[in-house]
Records
---
Amino acid sequence: MAFFLARRLLYLVPVLIAVSLLTFSISSLLPGDLAMTILADQATPENLAALRADMGLDQPIWKRYFIWLGHMLQGDFGRSFRTGQTVLQALVERLPVSIELMLLAQLGALSIGVPLAIICAVRSGGPFDRFMTGTAFAMLSVPTFLSAILLIYLFAVELRWLPATGYVPFAEDPLGNLRFMVLPAMTLALAEWPGIMRILRSDMIATLQEDYISLAKAKGLKPARILFVHALKPSSLTLVTITGINIGRLIGGALIVETIFALPGIGRLLVGAILTRDLVILQGVVLLVAAGFVIVNFIVDMLYAVLDPRIRHGHA
Amino acid sequence: MKAAIRSRTFAPIFHVAVFGLALIASPASAQKQGGTITVGLELDIPGFDPLKVGVYDTAALSASSAIFETLTYLDANGKAQPRLAVSWEPSEDFKMWTFKLRPGVKFHDGTPFNAEAYKANFDRQKDPANKCRCAFYIAGTKSVEAPDELTLVYNLTDPSVNFPSLVSYASQNSAVHSPTAWKTKGDDYNRNPVGTGPYVLKSWTAGDRLVLEKNPNYWDKDKIYLDRIVLKPLPDAQSRFASLQSGEVDLVWDDEFSADNIERAKKDSKLTVHSYTGSGATVTAFNTKVPPLDDVRVRRALVMSLDRKKMSQALTNGLAKPASNPYGDGSWVKCKDDGALPYDIEKAKALIKDYGKPVEFKKLFTATPRGRAAGQVEQQLWKLVGANMEMEQVDQATFPARGFTRQFQVIGWRIVDLADPDVQMYANFHTGSPANLAQYSNPELDGLLQKARTTADTDKRIDLYCQITRLINKEAIWYWTFQNTYYAISTAKIKGLPKMYSGVIDVSRTWKE
């Protein structure tokens, strides 16, 4: 197990280097000149040259990358030239909102997807199964921005059960916080549950045909016990992977959902940084979020090993 | 009121009824104290330190007009009225303006407001070492002097006959900050602004809400009704409107590009649509130094092939008002004849034929859905007369720089709503000015512009500005598409919203019924 862990940790190094390289080059290659952006109507050639020299933009790109990486490794993520906030300050303010949103969305998606998958798997090929597989397919093709607006119109404007936009921190008003979070989380969950259901359903159908399930049935175990204890755990391997990878999709979805519902999370921060060419915030936040994503998937890999002994013993 | 007065002449038995009627009819008694207004704006406010943010956008201006104050403000007729200044006097040549300041005003942190504090604000923005983008907008002021505690002297590079009306809204340059606050807070000042205004910053959660509370020591507090102002960035137009309908916000910013929402709100008795057509316009400049736009026939043909009504219909459901000069309905400059070229496809075709060579060029648009839509409409209209325009979309952040460095053939621009046309007209059309995008030079035009800024008499100035627009329209170096119209939608309970001069939504003197 220790060897497995060490090997996996070692893998992280090249991945993180690649992430930093990508982050830096993508944001540096964005159309538009940073110096021009900052100077705007004062972009005389002299001013531009002076600012470029001041910000080190006249250096070759590889040199800028190493200087930037050096700052990052020392924990200096920089300060926005627009707001004067440091990347870490901005992240600390925004991250809890996005994490809560993603957790709730994932929880919502699982609590819709998992039970439906089990029911469908048990009666696979039946009318409910066929109906649900069709529905899941349809739901997969509904874009987030559409479902968000539909949910707002139904629950906020027509029924007035939930607020359309806004946010209040959990610490300030836990119940209020949840009320604000329901619709955005539901929007994301609506896009996520079909994937979860489809994966778990097909894995479970396969598992239910294994010999040991027949044996368990023959032993006269209760169907519920067979389903939840004997079948669910071995069928959930792919699901765990999907859940990890989903975090990436959720971050992408958060860009849209946080904008529509006006949640002050990472997504909004990134959209704002892109629109205003706030490269310091953009690079710093993308790097940290990507690193977080890599680490979450590392943890998911570890969970794999917990779920399947063959992996941790290096046979797989 | 008329009914009430007439009733009083009848017998006293009507007394009670009359009293009741008078209450209903009198608007003064309706200004209710207390309550909170929640405003939904489009953008996150980056901050308030001019050195950091450079320019205030619409969202920042809503906040700054509650936190800060300016020397003057514009009344409902567009005339400058005293605020931090109590009176003013120009020199004979209109190059020096002396303001007498209001005594006894204090910033929220207790620092006294005086000429010295005002001068410190100006000097900080002007200081080349601070490299403030905001310095561009005060290039026309040489210096600000503080001869005594309550006297402020503006020294201008050029004459300005209407100067007090140009320092009338809480822009990055005109809002007065507490010098103590920016000195002690340093980098953090940007998000902890301190002014003299009727509201004090209470809390600010980035990306979520900015909460302002009534300033108990405000010098004019009798005219301030609401206890609290909450400003929220709601970037999505649909959910912003939905938040108004569902009652989470009381007032939202909007524009004619979400015409559907404005139309729906007009029909809803629970909502009020506030709109103001100011001066200025959305405009386009031709780079007259590059072919085919160096030929006046091409430029005229391009202008004459644009059907503004059709464009307004296609882009804004007909809400946007066509413009034929740079002044607009909100300006005091009204021309009987502005020399606008007529919409005439046949004439345009003939002009292009006369030119003889193919008319192909690129026009710059912002890389937004709106920019693309506007571009497509013009592309179609120009194709009808045989001109091929290729759209080039550039992101908003680099757009102005492309203009100022002349890297364009045709560029979309805006003349913003200011109380006096001089600043922008002079900058946009005088030979050699950095903002002279068309790179057009004409001694006659220069002479008119110079005369218009040094003439005190309003009627004479109007005449001069009409001559100017006739000349520009004739030469077709710029054209005007739509007038600047600003929108806000609120619940019907919100009263007292002033005219949205320069597009500023100032809720600091509103009340809630």
Note: The radius of gyration of chain A is 24 Å.
---
Amino acid sequence: MRTLLIAAGFAALLTSPLIAAPGDIVATRIAGFREVGAAFKNINDELKSGSPQLYVVQISARQIRDYARQHMGWFPAGSGPRPGVKTAAKAEIWSQAPAFKKAQDGFVAQANAFAGVAGSGDVAKMRVAAKALGGSCATCHRSFRVEDKR
Amino acid sequence: MTRAPRQFVWDLPVRLFHWALVVLIGFSWWSAENYHMDWHRLSGQAVLFLIAFRLIWGVVGSDTARFSHFLRGSRAIRIYLTDKQAPASVGHNPLGGWSVVAMLAVLGTQVVSGLFAVDIDGIESGPLSHLVDFDQGRLASAIHGLCFTLLQVLIALHVLAVLFYLAVRRRNLVGPMVTGSAAAPAPIPVRRAGPLALVIALSLSAALAWWLFAEPAL
């Protein structure tokens, strides 16, 4: 009986974040994508310079790679647009789940690739890979995010 | 046969400035809406060049281009608005002169905010965005967007005023902006700027436009 209670207690502890998730996960992913944007700005600022600071590119590349891994868990069912929640996530994320998953995988792949290229120190290759990484953002955002170009 | 007397109104630089701006504002809008941000930046650089040129030309240009000529006090504006018999001024009317200032101020804010703007994904940015952080760049971007709405309002007012002149006052303002002159029974002499002023204004504004968009040496 006691074991059962403890197990139930653990189960409750483990699932409570999931139950509390929808509200919090929206804030989590907004904050997370903001960090991705800020990190990508650092990369692009460096790469447009004639003499980029490679360590800035490398640190930012690792940040983006890590956020790309995390972002697979940022869109649980029920965290879409509904009254009272401010989110740019479109309902298509869940209604066209396979296409969205493909776009997410594309982001992870490009983020991994870019982190690899950033580590190599080859600036010309970084510029090409940064374009591809930006492309993976844009592909997903144009289909699955309410666009605000400002 | 004698030619009908013509009143000189706008010199060629002012006219080229005006119509180039019309084209570039349209192109900037279109390129931003369609994700052609390389073109959008080039277009912004050209607009920056034009505004810098116009500001300098407002000091060294022909009389009708000069701020000192067309910026009038509240009394002149009142007379212009109330006295229908008052002689029409050559160039900007007392109210129109201030609308030029408003347009230049909004366009200036538009271009400067664009220099620092950063898009939401940190992908596209203005040429000076490396001088600000992400949040400041996002703020610049918000200003860029708001300012464009303001610019659209000013342009709409401008076009309405031109149409008002055409329909109610029976005066064509577009013609002089194309040909540079208007029919007038007794033309008033207008001092025109020489080539030296033009060369100085062009080189200063071109240097500024090149420098602000040059590759940053971080």
Note: Chain B has one domain: 9-178.
